[in-house]
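Forwarding these from the shared drive since the link keeps breaking.
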Amino acid sequence: MRTELIKDAELVKTYIEGNENALAILINRHKQKIYSFIYSKVLDRDITEDVFQDTFIKVIKTLKLGKYNEEGKFLPWVMRIAHNLVIDHFRKNNRIPKFDNSGDFNIFSVLSDSSLNAEKTIIKSQVEEDVRRLIEELPSDQKEVLVMRMYNDMSFKEISENTGVSINTALGRMRYALINLRKVIEKHNIVLTNY
């Protein structure tokens, strides 16, 4: 049987049963996607390599301990691990304050610190990136209206004046843009949340 026809879940099971080669197939299958995802967050080849290696060390440990239970959703699970390791990287590199216990330690000062929102920022930028990519697939007249409305915060009256079409036409294009976006999201099985 050709390896590309073997499902991820089957390969995970085979690996847990002791076939080391199954993991190599899984890594090769998803390497590009995972590597690109990490690189898009850290924007540094060396750090990407490190996080990529750490991701698979964690994957191997979890599988060996028999703690994997993702009902066949291997890639989103690995992406979540990679995502968490990216956040750990930001924390380790002083993006998040460290406190020594000598002075007055106040948990609320930590919780309110904006740098703790590194994770939220990463998730938000990932979602925005996905949405922008999807918008590129729309017909140009729909894309134009959507961008004016969502990114430039223009009213339909302003859009109508700028594009030379009636308000109704602008509204119609917006409606079709949203319908088409939904179709593209469903077609690609895109989940607009963090991995």
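-- next protein --
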Amino acid sequence: MRMHLPGRLALLLLIASLTGCLYGFAGGGLPTHIRTVAVMPFDNHTATPELPRELQEALRQGMQSRLGLRDAPEDRASAVVRGTVTRYELDIPVGFSANPNQATSARRRLRVLVDIEIVDQVTGKVLWQKTGVSAEGEYADRGEAEGRKQAIERIVTEIIEGAQSQW
């Protein structure tokens, strides 16, 4: 069976595009030498002592599960993540229900702001940096921890997606 020239060109273009797509997704766009990461404890400029630890742990897990990076001590990691929690605002009112026939309930919102940088320790270059990464979480009365968890998850997603888009 002989293939005509237009058919051959179409087949070659199809093969080239498929291999290009497969190559483009390999390694999540990371430089090939970035295989380990150290997520350092975040500096804390807030009055909430547990926030930096919760953020550090969520970011460490996100980098492992979503980017395939192994956790490593700073002196052996190929990349280092450093950050500062700059603001933690809570009890921002969202909605109230004060129907006299029902119990009063309220929804609240909190906001977390961080500055972050990811440094390639092999080359010394900053791979990604952003100040004022902000996320919000909503919670019911006395449910601040749930709102904080939502905000942290959103921050981790923004950091990972932002970093991937730069590599």
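Helices lie at 5-25, 50-67, 144-166. Residues 144-166 form the longest helix (23 residues).

- D.
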